[in-house]
Amino acid sequence: MGATERKALLTNIEKARNSRALLYVTGDRQGQETIIHPEVLDHFVDHLDAIGVTNRISLILYTRGGDGMAAWSLLNLLRMFCDDLEVIVPVKAHSAGTMMAIGADNIVMTKQATLSPIDPSINHPLAPQIQGAPVGTRASVSVEAINGYLSLARDTLTDEGKAALGPVMLDLARQVHPLVLGDTYRRRQQTQSMAERLLSPQVKNAEDRKKIISFLSSDSGSHDYTLNRREAAALKLRITKCPARLYPTLRALYHDFRDEMMLRTPFNASQFPPNAVTPFRNVRAVIESSVGTAVQFVTEGNFLRQNLAPNQGEAVSVEITAEGWRTVP
Questions:
Q1: Whole-prediction pTM value?
Q2: pLDDT of residue 180
């Protein structure tokens, strides 16, 4: 199918949930990943203007995460257009996507749906250089990894050593620029503050909110940890099991954008013929509703595979000819 045909599925969701539906997908196709980004706000405004102020909005969300401040801004924007906001998770809403989910009044999850921790990673021009990578390629610095290193020092040093943590900090500052360390601390505080405010409509008890934020920030142990709906409900998030009559529609919707965006097919040389220049067009993110004009983030270009001398392997290159958000006719 495609964006035009998906409108019918979104209409079915609206009837089932007595709401107006929005679909937001950031693709996680290997080699063509996209993230939640501030540039989507204008596109959401276009759809929300077409919808108008309404009682309930159902945001169907598929994402591996992205910019936490963009997630915050997007949730606040959605709330300006509705009294009740729910996030529907067919498969995954991770990291900043989980931030968006906990900011809703209700989270609808299928059996296979997962959330994840919300601890951010920092991309900074002064972050450590990745060894062996092209010059200027910087590592993403995990806020909780820094905190974990300092916790390790505190937990393993003797009482005398704990009184002199200065050398530990100096060693850390030699590996990671002090400005990056400062930014990670600021971002950690900011993320926890935003999570507290986002959770307020969904979780009224302050102690419950504290436990949820602690688990999602650090107690889960890893940013790769995933929570299914049972564990999310045990944390006292407001979780609704996906109704049986809604599930086939969500499944069809997921299959449709998954196949159009080729989420199961890595973007690499194996999918292109050797000794040829092959044009490609990749849909990498989508924003759709039943009444607005669908938009897609698209990358177009040419993929070159060329065999070198015998036993010398091959040369592979990608030429980007066009990239950006486009409306779907």
A1: 0.85
A2: 65
